């Protein structure tokens, strides 16, 4: 234990000596869970932290990070890293020995997410030093209220633990994915995009849509335009469900197996935080 902590302290001293304490956290968030996680982490760390959203980097051909510590905070989609967020990470360039960490917020089924991310970074010659999954209320399959409340109550304590590890540049093991979990992840990936969140089935109820454009503003992929006072979807959907959850008239329906899902957003987040 003592050895473990002293190794961490030496590594931490090394990272800071390499160029100060600047940290960048790249995040993706549709209903606020990951945004609140990134914000709170930034508050708890006694260092200079900048948050950078997926929407601000998604079209950059190359993303030069230049920071001594880089974090990724994002939701799990279909038991994995959201494809478009992973593509951004694959276009990033890190300084040598950058401390890399990740927090995947999810609804209890992180699947192969952290392994995927770790593998993707390895192919770039980078190492994911610390990785965590964090249970939050679900926004695709909606978590029962009691379980959601419990997760939100436990969130500050869990996040503080994570923040302490990151503050000392701690290392964690990347959880192995047991065979049954890999199978479950494969099933989620096969079924989810067709039957649970399938952008081809998104539509508005004409009489309910007031053409306010909020769905277009919160869409991190600029995939919605308002035409003739109605939302219309393009072909760049990243499945995040921001449009569905934030529409003030609940005019958006997403079809699929669970047509009448309740709307959710994290209580500390408003649409302007995401636009
Ligand atoms: C398309 C989609 C697929 C999802 N798939 C999973 C999943 O496989 N496992 C899981 O635990 N949560 C899954 N979720 C739930 C989200 O990961 C979780 O609610 C997350 O905290 C939402 O983050 P946000 O509020 O920052 O957008 C999924 C959500 C969406 C929108
Ligand atoms: S947010 Fe809802 S009401 Fe406003 S334009 Fe979009 S679908 Fe219509
Ligand atoms: S269209 Fe809706 S679900 Fe698709 S990326 Fe935009 S906000 Fe997310």
UniProtKB/TrEMBL annotation:
The organism is: [Clostridium] asparagiforme DSM 15981
Asked if the record carries the keyword Cell membrane, the reply is no
Q: Which SUPFAM superfamilies match?
A: 4Fe-4S ferredoxins, Flavoproteins
Q: What is the lineage of its organism?
A: Bacteria, Bacillati, Bacillota, Clostridia, Lachnospirales
UniProtKB keywords: Iron, Iron-sulfur, Metal-binding
What the entry lists under NCBIfam families is as follows:
ferrodoxin_EFR1
Per UniProt, residues of the 4Fe-4S ferredoxin-type domain are: 200-229, 235-257
Under Gene3D superfamilies, the record lists: 3.30.70.20
Q: What is this protein called?
A: 4Fe-4S binding domain protein
Q: Which domain of life is it from?
A: Bacteria
GO terms (molecular function) for this protein are: iron-sulfur cluster binding; metal ion binding
InterPro entries according to UniProt: 4Fe4S_Fe-S-bd, 4Fe4S_Fe_S_CS, EFR1-like, Flavoprotein-like_sf
